[in-house]
Amino acid sequence: MSKSLQSQAPLKDLPIASVVDEVLEALHSGNVLLHAEPGAGKSTGMPLALLQGAGIAGKIIMLEPRRLAARGVAERLAAQLGESVGERIGLRMRGMTRTSSSTRLEVVTEGVLTRMLQADPSLEGIDLVILDEFHERSLHADLGLALCLEVQNALRPELRLLLMSATLAMENLHQHLHQATRIFCAARQFPVSIIWVGESQQALALRVSNVVLKAINEHQGDVLVFLPGVAEIEKTATQLAPRLGEQQVICRLHSGVSVNEQRAATAPSSSAVRRIILSTSIAETSLTIDGVCIVVDAGLERRGRVDSRSGAVLLETIKSNQSSATQRSGRAGRTAPGVCYRLWSEEGHGRRAENWQAEIQRADLAPLLMELKLWGVNSVAQLPWLEPPPPAALARAEDLLERLGILELGQLTQHGRAVARLPLHPRLGHMMIWAAQKGAGELSCSLAVLLDDLDRRREQVDVEILLKNSPGKQQQERIKRLARELSGELPPSETTSDAPSLG
């Protein structure tokens, strides 16, 4: 075991400690694929070990695919060092930057890594990029990997990449990365009993509430409930609240909760209070939730898909896959034997998809294409993709960007470069610039913040619910802060005269 781990009590007890030296040694010669089972400590143990290990003198950038997870991981890493976020552990996401001259490891969200690469393609001063939860295969993770590989091949052969996941399908990735070292770390997982509740026509909130009440009467520990979105969380909370005892409290966990609400849901458990944590799929990975011995899984989630006729992104409530179900049930066995209630049948489980296809195969590719044009790519095939973007989706993206005046003859226009500077979908960036020219820049910035909150759009039914849940004082302040930030990035109106009208 490395000397650095011996000085960190929380780290030396984690399963991930057993492979730290192997990972450090492998990084000396190339990239690493780390498959660590849920509960091994990859997100909060491995980064600290690498930070304090020999051979990594420069900064470490760690990509977390979700804002809530990024904040939680950064806080936990800093706490293990006895520090606050912004010292050796930094955090950077849209609307929040907590770094200092002493920051050595920076946790960032997806769009931030792309912006960093666009601003400095050589990633000067950065020795290691960690892509956490890579199995989620988000659009930005695939883009980040492709850009980092190109930087590594053309500019920085000494740059190292570490791809981490609890459920990584390694074979294709290993073939793609050629000389990358594959490392596996098992977790100390307690047994979890699976109870197949079966399907029902009963309203979801009532059904989940009944199962939760049954579970807390028959088992010990906190309860983690997986629901598809915020609307279902609120309906279930309404059903549960009057039926709970004084020592039983409801916590909410989704991308729209406040910092205090997140901490209440993820804090160490207390013998005086029993928590029922109502969560979206955001609690599947990265977030550490102590004290959970019961999982109730509705078996549903929200996912977006592009309508091929309209080009609009549609939100659908669909059955979660087998891999997600395994991740969710594993949450009940982190600290003691647990139980997982699945609200579907064992027979039906076998008919569910094993994994989801990568987002690049089903998403609106307009933002990706705009980033590629800003990067200077003439042909998408130039980049080392794990899975190349579908030609039909790229054609739709190019058509949209041309209609918005962002592209002309395959190149970014002056207006397009202005839009590309904004951390927004091209539609929203175009709207902001057009509105600013009409004297409505402040309003357009606020509207763009609401519409561009990707995590919340994935979890909620529609914009009506988003707006209904937004009027709180804290949320209003957040919107105002982000709107001011966006407003500062708007170019002078005279520099974007080629922006087409919205009609």
Account of the 3D structure:
- The chain is α/β, with parallel strands linked by helices and 503 residues long.
- It has 21 helices and 18 strands.
- It is globular and about 65 Å long.
- The strands form 4 sheets. Strands 4-3-5-2-6-7-1-8 form an 8-stranded mixed sheet, with helices on both faces.
- It has helices at residues 3-6, 9-12, 20-29, 46-52, 67-80, 110-119, 139-154, 170-177, 204-218, 230-240, 259-266, 322-330, 346-350, 366-375, 391-403, 414-420, 426-437, 441-451, 454-459, 463-468, 473-489, and strands at residues 32-36, 59-63, 89-93, 96-98, 105-108, 126-131, 160-165, 181-185, 192-196, 222-226, 248-253, 274-279, 292-297, 300-306, 313-319, 338-342, 407-408, 411-412.
- Strand 17 (407-408) and strand 18 form a beta hairpin.
- 45% of the residues are buried.
Spell out the blueprint of helices and strands.
Elements (H helix, E strand, L loop, with lengths): L2 H4 L2 H4 L7 H10 L2 E5 L9 H7 L6 E5 L3 H14 L8 E5 L2 E3 L6 E4 L1 H10 L6 E6 L7 H16 L5 E6 L4 H8 L3 E5 L6 E5 L7 H15 L3 E5 L3 H11 L7 E6 L5 H8 L7 E6 L12 E6 L2 E7 L6 E7 L2 H9 L7 E5 L3 H5 L15 H10 L15 H13 L3 E2 L2 E2 L1 H7 L5 H12 L3 H11 L2 H6 L3 H6 L4 H17 L14
Helix pairs in contact: 6-7, 9-10, 14-15, 16-17, 17-18, 18-21
Summarize the structure.
The protein is α/β, with parallel strands linked by helices and 503 residues long.
Report mean pLDDT, rounded to a whole number: 85
Overall 3D shape? globular
CATH architecture of the largest domain: 3-Layer(aba) Sandwich
Q: Tally the helices.
A: 21
User: In CATH terms, what is the fold-level topology of the largest domain?
Assistant: Rossmann fold
Helical amount: 40-55%
**What structural category do the secondary elements indicate?**
alpha/beta
What's the number of extended β-strand segments?
18
Return the domain count. Answer: 3
Spatial arrangement of strands, main beta sheet: 4-3-5-2-6-7-1-8
Q: Which band does the percent of strand residues land in?
A: 15-25%
Radius of gyration: 23 Å
The largest β sheet comes out as: 8 strands, mixed
> Which class of the largest domain in CATH terms?
Alpha Beta
What separation lies between the terminal Cα atoms? Answer: 65 Å
Low-confidence stretches: 1-9, 454-464, 493-497
